[in-house]
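User: Can you model how zinc ion sits in this protein?
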Amino acid sequence: MTNECEKELMERYDRQLRIAGWNQAKLMEATVMVAGVGAIGCEVAKNLALMGVGKLILVDNDVVELSNLSRQMLFTDEDLGKSKAVVAAEKLRKMNPCIKVDAYFEDVRRLDQSIFQETRVIVSCLDNWPVRRWLNSLAIELNKVLVDSSMDGFYANLQVVIPKETPCLECHGDDLIPKEIQIAECTLRKKTPKDLIEELKGYGIEIGLKTAEKLFMLNIKTAYDIKYAQASLLEKLDGKVRKEVQELQEKLKPRMPALQCVAALISGIASTEVIKILHEGTLGEIIKDLLVYDGLSNSFTFVHLERRGDCFVCGDAVREEAVPFPLRLSETILELKKRIAEKFSIPDPELLYKRWRLSDEQKLADLSPQAGDVIYVDTSRRFMPLPLRIEIMEE
Ligand SMILES: [Zn+2]
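Assistant: Here's the modeled complex, given as structure tokens:
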């Protein structure tokens, strides 16, 4: 911080310093990540920058489009085609030159772990469940507070996840995450490239068999896989097919109804929670229930959720000694994967046992597993693989 900044700080923050219990130093020392710089992310980042959070990390792998300009308030017509994270960072540095802003034009799942480690709070402002769930599992593993906010038209949600204290997004995922998303994602139901071609027809998209076959070789088997395929995976495709997949991603991009006024409202609440979290209990109570706002009926509903001890992401038992899971020795790996997919809503389970990646046609009996052994389930849904403790079922 320069001397000039130091001098002006007292005046810059004068009105908020007048709030009883306010501690500007706690904000200035903090690093907060904003994942997703869309309508909510722009507002949250702007709020935290103006209030003087010392360092912001902005992450978004999208560029500014015309349809963003009705609500993503850090962007203007001149920014079309530019990285959202980079443009937002430039604007925020102008709004408050006394803070540091880092920008990553990247899929949040590709960031180095050290970037998350330096973060005190992660604010998830993402528009899709797969990456929200991944970020939720990362927050639990790295013991970071997650403020998750989302919206759909006049509705908006907010949930603060404090590891080991409040429920995570998966504790009640079966009830709260839309079923069609859980089912549509499942790769195990798609056995051949023709299944992928058929699924895409449902979206009004045609692709050739050769392209579908190339995608299958990379384990990209569903529209969901295409939508959320990481750039590093696509780099393995030849230029022409890669371009075709990028166009498909564009067509498949989620396009939720969205309103600036609702984004401003829920991001205002999310930012307030971040400030309270940074004050560590000295400035009001953190919202520990799921908040649901309905702008049409003018209601704020607080849904009390209990943390689940058997939650497969944040449950204590899972973290300490793996989830007990029964195996039938007569079943194949594919059959086992299907049961795991259904039980945990994991769309793309890959099984690891004693450092082997198991293939679908293998029979469990051939592996001679022992009760108490651990099989790891690798999935794009989680930051770390899910450990399952084997129980052998009588047949
Ligand atoms: Zn949980």
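A couple of observations from the model: The mean pLDDT is 91. The first strand starts at residue 31 and ends at 35.
User: Helpful, thanks.
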